[in-house]
Specification:
binds zinc ion; alpha/beta; eight-stranded parallel beta sheet; 255 residues
Length: 255
């Protein structure tokens, strides 16, 4: 199994420690053919993407050569309508739109749901389990409203019905991520994996590296895959199986 893509990377624009050029040099040295830069998005606390930074990052990516670098964003789902904390213009311009749950989101961001963010983010496992159906509906709404490419670390901190979301992803051509940092620790992911697989959904690998030493490193994903019968033609970023992502340029926010 050769990992030749990494579709989840952070730079100094958010909470990563490296520049685009450093990540690219590292990816090239490790033999990767494609990467996606997916910095944390607009409402993330402290370090996050902005319109100005997105513009500057675009120029940095355009200056690179030798491997395909996608400019993406790791967008936060922030309210009951499934809204993302990304200006519509950036949804249209992001080459990879990754969506997911994060708890360190500014609560002054509009729209945003305190129940969704605070209970999932900071309350007990028991309290979070009670939001299972509520969370699932929110994720489904996001997938309905936005031209998402990837659902990141599904189930991490935010309990959801993996299978319903995977079904929706399969229908809408959205990748479910194998996230190196969370794949072995997300409650229920392994247990539900046969049913997730049965939906026909495609998978994609992401290291979630915040430093160059983690770029393209997939020890946990390798372990997960080697213990299961996953058809590798369903896993993107492995053995020359490289993805394509949606053209979002015509997308309109209907809400
Ligand atoms: Zn994340
Ligand atoms: Zn991330």
């Amino acid at each position: 199994m050769v990992f030749d893509g990494d579709f989840h990377l952070h730079t100094k624009v958010s909470d990563g420690h490296s520049s685009v050029a450093e990540l690219v040099a590292c990816a090239r040295a490790r033999g990767l053919k494609q990467i996606a830069i997916t910095d944390h998005s607009f409402s993330s606390l402290i370090c996050h993407q902005t319109l100005e930074k997105f513009e500057a990052q675009r120029a940095e990516i355009d200056a690179e050569s030798g491997l395909r670098v996608y400019q993406g964003i790791e967008a936060n789902i922030v309210d009951e309508a499934g809204s993302l904390d990304v200006p519509d213009e950036i949804v249209r311009r992001a080459e990879v739109l990754t969506v997911g749950f994060h708890r360190f989101v500014a609560l002054m961001f509009k729209p945003c749901s305190r129940k969704f963010l605070l209970v999932n983010g900071f309350m007990s496992e028991r309290a979070r389990r009670k939001l299972y159906d509520y969370n699932t509906e929110i994720f489904l709404r996001t997938l309905e409203r936005y031209p998402a490419d990837i659902v990141a670390h599904i189930g991490h901190r935010c309990p959801v019905d993996f299978v319903r979301i995977a079904e929706e992803c399969a229908k809408r051509d959205v990748f479910v991520e194998f996230n190196e940092k969370h794949i072995l620790s997300t409650a229920g992911f392994a247990e539900n994996f046969d049913d997730i697989l049965a939906t026909g959904v495609k998978f994609i690998v992401g290291s979630d590296a915040h430093r160059t030493d983690r770029v393209g490193k997939f020890d946990n994903v390798r372990k997960f895959l080697s213990e299961r019968n996953v058809p590798l033609d369903r896993v993107y970023g492995v053995d020359g199986n490289l993805p394509s992502f949606k053209d979002k340029s015509e997308w309109k926010n209907e809400l």
